[in-house]
Design brief:
Blueprint: H1 11-26, H2 35-54, H3 59-66, H4 70-79
């Protein structure tokens, strides 16, 4: 895949901007405990939904794209009630 097609707005840049904004809004207050878990709970569901939409609901293909086995994907779909 040609990385140039993502050069205008790489995902990591958008994530960095969002996190920077989040920490700015904390205005010196500490982030919540288990911040990593909070971020993953915010990011994983839309990621899973987007990949499932991209694959027209094909869980085997979605799992392949995500780099996980189908059982793990199904577990995450249940976890997030997707």
């Amino acid at each position: 895949m040609n990385r140039d097609m993502f050069s205008s707005a790489p995902l990591r840049v958008k994530v960095q901007e969002t996190l920077d904004d989040y920490f700015r809004q904390l205005d010196g207050h500490p982030p919540p405990a288990q911040f990593y878990r909070l971020v993953m709970q915010e990011v994983e569901p839309p990621l899973l939904r987007s990949v499932l939409d991209y694959t027209s609901g094909n869980q085997s293909r979605a799992a392949e794209i995500l780099g996980m086995n189908r059982a793990t994907l199904r577990k995450k779909l249940r976890q997030y009630q997707i």
